[in-house]
Design a protein that fits this description.
Length: 262
């Protein structure tokens, strides 16, 4: 009985046989070379380069942020500005031996004092028929002495000045004397208002009466001069006269004179 032939290498030599039961790596034969493993890949330094490129500027910026700047203010004091954590944090300080800042005096007047210093919105003065009231205008130099000399109720209109049915005419005679430094130039009828016993008020009318001469629409009164004229109202027949109000600057002045008619 023959044995199978052993494999031979290219040179005609048999490789050494392995011991019986040997399970380890095969021993290469004559002329056999195991495959060479590939070289390990080269490690890249890109991450280290990037870390250095970013980290070094950040360290420089952090060091610059910790620099303390000393600023001199307008009063000779100093302020230390620290920007380590908060760029907007300012710590005020003053030089040794310097006096503390003077307290700011509160020049605001108390509310009551302000109210007393401000002029009254509307000041009313009272009198009766025949009495005089001195009124001031919006111009500081305008000052007029106003006198209600008489009241004609009812008044008689001319043929062209008849009241409407159910109404009557009332004429109030005024004397205006310039007691100030400014020239009075206004329409007295615009500043007059008639008030009845129920609180109803009436403006003047352009009707004329036989009991007196009107101001003719407007009046110009120099310093020390005076004018007299009647102001005409048209009121209901049953109205009871109570007051007359009068103000300078066509009634827009703050002061108002008030005369009791009954």
């Amino acid at each position: 009985m023959g044995y199978p032939s052993q494999p031979q290498d290219p040179y005609g030599q048999q490789p050494p046989s392995q011991p019986y039961g040997y399970s380890g790596p095969q021993q290469p034969g004559y002329g056999y070379q195991p495959p060479t493993p590939p070289p390990p890949p080269k490690r890249s330094n890109l991450g280290l380069i990037l870390a250095l490129a970013i980290g070094i500027p950040l360290l420089l910026l952090g060091g610059c942020a910790a620099v303390v700047l000393v600023l001199a203010d307008s009063g000779g004091r100093e302020s230390i500005v620290t920007e380590a954590d908060s760029p907007n944090m300012t710590v005020p300080s003053r030089a040794p031996g310097s006096s503390p800042p003077a307290a700011v005096e509160n020049t605001t007047a108390p509310p009551q004092q302000q109210e007393q210093s401000e002029p009254a919105q509307q000041e009313q003065l009272t009198a009766t028929v025949g009495g005089s009231i001195t009124l001031e205008g919006m111009d500081p130099g305008l000052k007029m002495q106003v006198t209600v000399t008489r009241v004609v109720d009812p008044a008689t209109g001319d043929q062209f000045s008849k009241p409407q049915t159910g109404n009557r005419l009332v004429a109030v005679e005024l004397t205006l004397a310039n007691a100030g430094d400014a020239v009075y130039s206004d329409s007295p009828t615009n500043g007059a208002m008639l008030i009845d016993g129920e609180g109803q008020q009436y403006r003047t009318t352009f009707r004329t009466v036989q009991e007196g001469q009107s101001f003719g629409g407007s009046a110009t009164i120099n310093k020390g001069d005076s004018r007299k004229g009647v102001i005409v109202f048209e009121v209901p027949e049953g109205a009871k006269l109570a007051k007359l109000q009068f103000g300078l600057d066509s009634g827009f002045a703050k002061q108002k004179g008030e005369w009791t008619l009954s």
